[in-house]
């Protein structure tokens, strides 16, 4: 059973198929860093059966988090050091996230007043 996946140093990787990890119901850790990703992948099945330990999208090229673009159940979601400019209302609607980190997103200028509306179990931001 696969419990951890790491993808790093892949600048030509710009997108994932929406249901790429749908069968990975034992996955606890997903790390995708230093890639060319500009949009948050639609991993709607990730953490569907159990809460993951860590989802790490550090140091990619993520630009914007749109409404309902993040659909996860995880103890930690790291979105550090991306190119995130704005986060729309309800971007995390329906998520269960214990710790959310947005550190180092120097281009982040706009947070909707309802950015975190619908997020469940957030303890640390």
Can you give keywords for this protein?
three-stranded parallel sheet; 8 strands; five-stranded parallel sheet; 125 residues; Leucine-rich repeat, LRR (right-handed beta-alpha superhelix)
Provide a short characterization of the protein structure.
With 125 residues, the protein is an all-beta fold. It has strands spanning 4-10, 29-35, 52-56, 64-65, 73-78, 86-87, 96-101, 110-111. The strands form two sheets. Strands 1-2-3-5-7 form a five-stranded parallel sheet, with no helix packed on it. A three-stranded parallel sheet has the order 4-6-8, with no helix packed on it.
Task: Kindly describe this structure.
This protein is an all-beta fold and 125 residues long. The chain has a single domain, classed as Leucine-rich repeat, LRR (right-handed beta-alpha superhelix) (Alpha-Beta Horseshoe). Helix content is 0%, strand content 30%. It is built from no helices and 8 strands. The strands form 2 sheets. Strands 1-2-3-5-7 form a 5-stranded parallel sheet, with no helix packed on it. Strands 4-6-8 form a 3-stranded parallel sheet, with no helix packed on it. The termini are far apart.
Query: Which secondary-structure class do the elements indicate?
Result: mainly beta
CATH class category label:
Alpha Beta
Which series of helices and strands comes N to C?
Answer: EEEEEEEE
Strand line-up in the sheet with most strands:
1-2-3-5-7
CATH homologous superfamily identity: Ribonuclease Inhibitor
Which regions contain 5 or more consecutive residues with pLDDT less than 50? Answer: none
Overall pLDDT:
89
Percent of residues in beta strands? 25-35%
Largest sheet features: 5 strands, parallel
Distance between the termini: 31 Å
Count of DSSP H/I helices: 0
Overall morphology: globular
CATH architecture: Alpha-Beta Horseshoe
> Total strand count, please?
8
Rg computed from alpha carbons, rounded to a whole number of angstroms: 13 Å
Which fold name fills CATH's third level, the topology? Leucine-rich repeat, LRR (right-handed beta-alpha superhelix)
Tell me the count of domains: 1
Q: What level of helicity do the residues show? A: under 10%
């Amino acid at each position: 059973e696969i419990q951890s996946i790491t993808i790093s140093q892949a600048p030509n990787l710009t997108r994932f198929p929406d249901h790429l990890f749908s069968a990975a119901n034992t996955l606890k850790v997903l790390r995708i860093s230093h890639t060319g990703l500009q949009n948050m992948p639609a991993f709607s099945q990730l953490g569907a059966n159990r809460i993951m330990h860590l989802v790490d999208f550090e140091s990619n090229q993520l630009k914007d988090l749109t409404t309902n673009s993040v659909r996860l159940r995880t103890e930690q979601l790291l979105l550090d050091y991306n190119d995130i400019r704005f986060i729309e209302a309800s971007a995390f609607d329906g998520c269960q996230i214990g710790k959310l980190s947005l550190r180092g997103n120097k281009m982040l200028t706009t947070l909707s007043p309802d950015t975190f509306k619908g997020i469940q179990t957030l303890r640390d931001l």
